[in-house]
Amino acid sequence: MKKIVVLLSLMLIYSCKKEVKEKIETVTITSNELKETVAFLASDALQGRDTGSQGIEEAATYIENQFKTLGVKPYFKTYKDPFKVDSLNAYNVVGVIKGNDQELQKEYIIIGAHYDHIGISKKVVANDSIANGANDNAAGTSSVIAIAKYFAAKKNNKRSLLFVLFSAEEKGLLGSMHLAKKLKAQNVNLYTMVNLEMIGVPFIDRDYTAFITGYEKSNMAEKLNNYLDANVIGFSEIAKKYNLFTHSDNYPFYKEFNLPCHTISSCDLSNYDYYHHVDDEADKLDYNHMANLINTILPGIEKMSNTPTKEIILNP
To answer: CATH fold of 38-304, please?
Structure first.
């Protein structure tokens, strides 16, 4: 009888471990969690998240609390990476999930997005002057948090992952410039940087889901599509025409490290009418599209974090 009890206990433990493992292996980002984050960040209460404002302070605290809840550790002594914009205090929010391989953990991949916006707009529409910045870039911010959730649960990344939410992007990429110089001075072994910007609406006339800025500068798009076995990341003529590669937080890292650093987006200004507009509100976004995009590219980022060698390289 005692042997049967022991056997049943072992079977129960095995079953529980298997159930936990299955739950971890099937982490899925939902449209509701993305919507909840965007709704908070793009609410009128945060007054457009202008750098140095009370609203962006609340946004930074929100992101910190999300990282704490997920078990994402601060990369520096605290989550906040402070810098100055003239006389204003500004903060990037930086979390890390260390890699689980003794050697590859020394290499870093940055997953980033900016969480600031332009604050109160001079263009008043229907008595509304708050530029809420839902697509630009609460959408990207929500996705970085969601990707952090995925890797915090799975813990299967061999390389270390930095999750960075930048401030003062709208002031001229100042937050990313500050951090890129800081990490370069610290001799951080950066592999690549993936930035998420304006992913809140889908294309209706493309054979891909999102484009990558600076498409021709590296093989990142090709590698991601190979990892995903699908044509997910494409080339945007409009993005090239307006040189969007230099207009988001990937660019300072490209300049400092001379490595593949790109922005993934599903909006090249041809499919959204509310850029820097007071109507860039949370209810304008397609959260099913956002969840689909993030869940689709996650295995590609996962593969990127685990390849034995650095497969993503600049083109000659």
So the answer is: Aminopeptidase (3.40.630)
**pTM, two decimal places:** 0.91
Rounded to an integer, what distance in angstroms lies between the CA atom of residue 250 and that of residue 84?
20
- Alpha-carbon distance values, 170 to 114, 115, 118, 243 (Å): 9, 10, 6, 16
First-to-final CA distance of the chain: 71
What is the total residue count of the chain? Answer: 316
Q: Distance between alpha carbon 150 and the CA centroid of its chain, in Å? A: 12
Least confident of 123-127, 185-189, 191-195, 300-304: 123-127
189-196 and 107-114 as β-strands: parallel, antiparallel, unpaired? parallel
Query: Degrees (nearest 5) of the Cα angle 280, 282, 288?
Result: 120
The alpha carbon of 281 is separated from its chain's Cα centroid by a whole number of angstroms, namely: 19
Residue found under tokens 């190979």: 226
Residue 18's pLDDT band, with cuts at 50, 70 and 90, is very low
